[in-house]
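Subject: complex prediction, re-run

Hi both,

The earlier run crashed halfway through, so I resubmitted it with identical inputs.
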Amino acid sequence: MPIPPSLASTLLHQIDQDQALIPGLPNDVAALILSFLPYSHHCRLKPTCKPWYIFLSSKTLHSLRRHHRRRSLSHLLCVFPEDPHISSPFLFDPQHLAWRPLPPLPCNPHEYGLCNFTSVSLGPHIYVLGGSLFDTRSFPLDRPSPSSSAFRYNFLTSSWDRLAPMLSPRGSFACAAIPSADQIIVAGGGSRHTLFRAAGSRICSVERYDVERDEWEALDGLPRFRAGCVGFALREGGEEREFWVMGGYGDSRTVSGVFPVDEYYKDALVMELKGNGGGKWRELGDMWGAGETPRFGKIVMVEDEDGGSPPAIFMLDDNDILRYDMASNRWQKECSVPRRAPCKSSYGLVVLNEELHVMTIVNGIDSTETRRSRQQKRAGTLFMQIYHPRKKTWRCLVTKPPFRQPLDFSTTVMCPIQL
Amino acid sequence: MGSTSTKIKLRTSDQKVFEVEKAVAVQSQTIKYIYENGCPDSVIHVHSVSGDILSKILDYCKKHVNSAAGKEDISPEELYEWDANFVKVDQNTLFDLILAANCLKIESLLDLTCQTVANMIKGKRPEEIRTTFNIKNDYTIEAEEAVRRENKWAFDMLGGVGTMVIEELADDTMSKCVTNTKSRVCVIAANQIVMMRSISKLANKKSIDVYKQPQNPTTPRIKESVKQRNVGTGFIELFFHFKCKM
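This time it finished cleanly. Structure:
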């Protein structure tokens, strides 16, 4: 939350160093108490008194929550309804059903229609990488091109920073954050845009971003080019050991000589992460046998924060949740989503706080309100069904997102973050 | 008894002496340090803690040591309940507990008490926080207004009212929520049945019997009766009474 300059200077002049945050308690204990407050309540409580304003906007609070009391971190979701250059991303707190808009990305007059970018969180920052967009400087004008831009949102300064661009431009790529080494790895990708359901290039290059040096470094490329894939970093003993890439599409063939159809990959690839570089890619082979019907849905990974059990990988395909078995390289059905979505809409799938969140938009327009809301397109109600993989139970949440445009989960990018 | 555990003597600020088992007393890192570095037979002075507070703290430590060692048959949920009741004290006692836990360095008690105060803060508006904790408002009216406008968080619930999710359902469960007439209520029962009702449909009906055909015929059918009461300004209070029927 940026402190307006006039208020900040008056605050700094007027604050008495001995002023207690909570009268009756020493300031370090009061700071500990305030660090237990969920992130979404911080702004609401700043008008209590000036010492609270200073403390709740400070870096000490963030580092206290991050390093000393990890259990009290709020698990939030950053939702990008549309191109983040023109429409604000939103931060959502599912525990307190609170929404907050973030400032949009710095606008570039030449580029528009950004989609299929990837958003990943590393520490208290959100990164927006790559994507597919239209560039007014390109020729021909109506062909989308992949982007190599990288942006980072800093929650302490509430601003977007532009980072070093990727070596190869890409959209729809596999991406994973490596917190233990403060790095981000990206693999594959292409130039496909959501406006065109086919076509687009694919690449096979793999890069790694080092946050401290603000540099991209090329790693060993994928065996074959691949886009639309998903990637995650598997942790073992506190450190990320392997980077997995699953699924995606490579070649395309034409049906009846006219319609392009993607050839989807059924296999997974693993790269071992070493201290100063990646290893070679190891192919795990197809995840479905010759006679089995392959399933292509959204894939996510649920990590065990305490490190007790290995991470679990789940796929959501058409009302079914499948769990990946690493030993046999096969998927098994775990359960079904309790309440099915209307057939035409798609699900959004994200992992928050070690639980799988399956989201749909339920049309919230009441029959009595259609007369009034002709001009306004309502975003509808967001219905989330949440699955706990260990307890194997479902629960649900309902909330009304504050943005006007309806969410389309086949194109909306979401990113979980802990603050 | 035949217990051969060592005992440690603690003297408080008001000259009360407590004799406790070593395993209980060393939950406090301060006492543990003094015991391991000083003469084990002498009495340890805990100057900043009064007798009442120390007695409560020792209850806490004993409960947690016994449950961890398996001496007491208590499930994690029951221990959680016990902790929740432990901190249901007046604010002065709570602050004394915090200061004592901070001084004696008992991390789990410090976390528990601080989380309790944080929960108190979380549910209040700034004016209420100032009254409760005796904090002076040092903003001018314009500055306070400016800071309030900076808050961009929109809560789907307004001060505790809103969409309610009832997670666990047992026979004869009663539950209450206050919500506005436009929100929904989601109910999950037996991990298999999901009910979602729009409040506007529930309003204007004295009580509703809702049955949902479960997918598995052996699970109980849930009867939910809802009574509603208008509490003004578009909010209604709903009383849910669930009965499970086989």
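Helices of chain A lie at 5-14, 27-35, 39-45, 50-56, 59-68.

- K.
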